[in-house]
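Thread: Modeling a multi-component assembly for a lab meeting

Hi all, long-time lurker, first post. My supervisor asked me to bring a structural picture of a complex we are working on to next week's group meeting, and I have zero experience with this. I have the sequence lines for every component (938 residues in total). Could someone generate the structure of the whole assembly? Inputs are pasted exactly as I received them:
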Amino acid sequence: MPELTLKEISVEGHRGPRLAPLDVPAEGETRLLPADRLRRGAPGLPEVSEPAVVRHFVNLSILNHHIDRAIYPLGSCTMKYNPKLNDEVASMPGLAAIHPLQPEELAQGALAVVAELKHWLGTIAGLPAVTLQPAAGAQCELTAVLMTRAYHRERGNPREEVIVPDSAHGTNPSTVNQVGYRVVTVPSGSDGCVDIDALRRVVSEKTAALMLTNPNTLGIFERRVGEIARIVHEAGGLLYLDGANLNALIGLASPGSMGFDFTHINLHKTFSTPHGGGGPGGGALCVREELAPYLPTPVLERTGDRYHWTDDRPRSIGRVHSFYGNFGMMVRALCYVKTLGASGLEEVSREAILNANYLKARLQDAYQPSYPGYCMHEFVLSASRQKARGVRALDVAKRLLDFGVHAPTAYFPLIVDEALMIEPTETETKASLDRFADALLAIDRESQEDPERVRNAPTRTPVRRLDEARAARKLTLTWRDLEDEVGRA
Amino acid sequence: MLDRIGAKSLEELWEAIPSEFRVAGSLPLDPPMAEYELTRRFAQLAEQNADASHYACFLGAGIYDHFIPAAVRSILSRSEFATAYTPYQPEVSQGTLQAIFEFQSMICELTGMEVANASMYDGATASAEAAHLATGANGRRVVLVSKGLHPHYRRVLETYGAAGSYETREVAIDQGATSIESLRRLLSPDVAAFLWAQPTFEGVVEDGKALTEAAHAAGAYSIAAADPVALALLRPPGEDGADVVVGEGQPLGVPMGYGGPVVGFFAIRKGDVRRLPGRLAGVTVDLDGTRGYVLTLQTREQHIRRERATSNICTNQALMALANTVHLALLGAQGMREVAVQCLEKAHYLARRASEIPGVSLANGGAPYFREFALRLPGPAAEFLRAAEARRILAGVPLARFDGGRPRDLLVAVTEKRTREELDRYVETLADWARSRFGARVAEAACRS
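Re: Modeling a multi-component assembly
Sure thing. I ran the full set together rather than chain by chain. Output:
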């Protein structure tokens, strides 16, 4: 029996917590506002008591997989454990119940959080100028490509193209298009890395920038990144690192030293802020000093021992957020890095790489690895052998859910047939990795002995496979749509 | 583990990283800290901030100190919601997916629209994405923006517009509301959309119907950026005929949090559903015919459509949208209406009492307002703010922040949480300051000017 909707459990007259009675003389809304600006009747919201609301959402919650339950090995998503201290600290009234426009003298603690996190992230990235205003990684990309445009325009020509490898995340080409550049795709070579000769052919005076993910989405370090940087820079272009995979690099290699002009950092990946079922994220964009004048405003400055915001940046691209970004995520990320400290941070990527290679070693006899050799923090397997037995990557992913673990990212990157992209992160124990590997190996055996069972999966989840085509064909997007549908039936 | 991998050392695993890019030695950062040390450190930082539990907060300008039921925090702190990823595997994400569906439903009820997405970053970027949707729909390139829209939203629109999809032009305001004459003058066949706020930045309630009719007469989209609390009382922009309704969801159960994380909402007509940015949940059935929820129309999105996507947005503000959903469920139809009415009554009580003080007036005269109003003082607003801080009052946002020509104007927001005692203390503080600083005679002179 599925959980009913709030509308379906609504009972006239029921409600949750009440307000204190109005303690000023009531004038009445019809005297205070013109009658034609008022709503006719109350909005169509449900009427539910507090216990019923709490049960509703608790019942919904238990239908979810989550990182506190078991491994969540989505590639490029870095689903690591989110320390509880970070949430506790972020909910202190002095950090949560503060207004973005209160006087700066009465917000120095908040500004110190921003300043300190910028310092930590800039140091890790090796790119010292940082903005924390973007709300997520994709908005960092947008900010950076807008900065790219401003940079080239100052040099007389905004240029026309941004180069993106074929293994890139979808946000890269989408961002490039949104900023009015043309996407030029560069293929990967047989080693899974950017094809340097192909790159030379597409780089020109039209090239505004190259967006690279390193390690790339195959989990391979682009070892010729120095050469890539030279090619792009010699043509006058800028080099952007999609930092989704920074969890492989902390304390090992810095984006700045590799020649990147900017990198974004997802606080909700590498820096452990909870993903929230799809956000809030947190974006940090770290850039070379030369690009600092283009960063979004307002910019945090320090005069003596006081911090203050300034909009006085004539070359800035302007504002990208209502206020300063996802401050609550900054608090959590700062608490995370200070918990680990320099020594703990240096362990993060080493452990993440070890865990990924261990899993890969356990699985590569059953599932075809996309490329040989060691991987960084993630790796891509192909379910091509299983496909020959009538079991696709999708089936493998769905069957994993029956084992109480989450599936890897499936069908990405696009350049691998039947891709399963696996990122275990450093916070999984060996026992947890083994449990996940055992499940995948059992599914491989099932694909030989009982492929139907895999194709029918999942059977132990709250619902079975859902008809996505029907959802798209017959759009039911609100309670009203649902009532219409039930009414027609 | 290394044995199983077949590596002799850990270092062998990252030998692909050329030595020239390696970090030499340790990161020049601080050593680790224990939990209790960090709790103390962050408590010290928190103490340097004036928070709404120690000050009476009259600050608004897009972020408000509304009541948040304890059950909202309790639900949001559940690992099942907080530590889940985007619901890519719907069979184990039904909780998140149904919550998104209920969010979409309630946003439609409040705005009077037909389809809402799973959330945007904030009200400002939702406004910019709405402008982008309109230019894509009608192929025009100019976006008119009322100066009644939050100045920060206008700056974000300019930033996003500079990306090439549209050019913004500002429509004048008169007494805090859009000047319909100015709007009519600027409307032309190039205009893709007109963006307006309900209520405006200075709290004034617009005639959305008149604005929308003017925009439609020129073939432009009417886009409203609406406050969700006001929508419990005001005629929703959907009934005014608006084509897109966006807004900031922070007033619905999200802490002020120094401006983030907050959450944008985005609602449209069914005809534009394939232009919608961001995620969308829909109802379907599973193999047994049981009702279930999935992300739908994903072919609009960046991970499928890549450079032809409707937007580059990926991660949004799902947990904050959940806060909105739980908050709206707890308050319900009557509770939300009561919140709105209390804001309205208390704001008017304060405005009336304050403007009885010699030298103090309402900057927008008799224009109708909801929860917020611009107060004109007999002297520099910044000075009064300091006097009020000494009495534990955050008295408002000085409008000189946005317009240097308005040093005496203060934007004051009053939520249902402000008590009569706080309102009276505000008035008394303002009266004392005006008297001590200017005296009765000067105050009267200022009043006449």
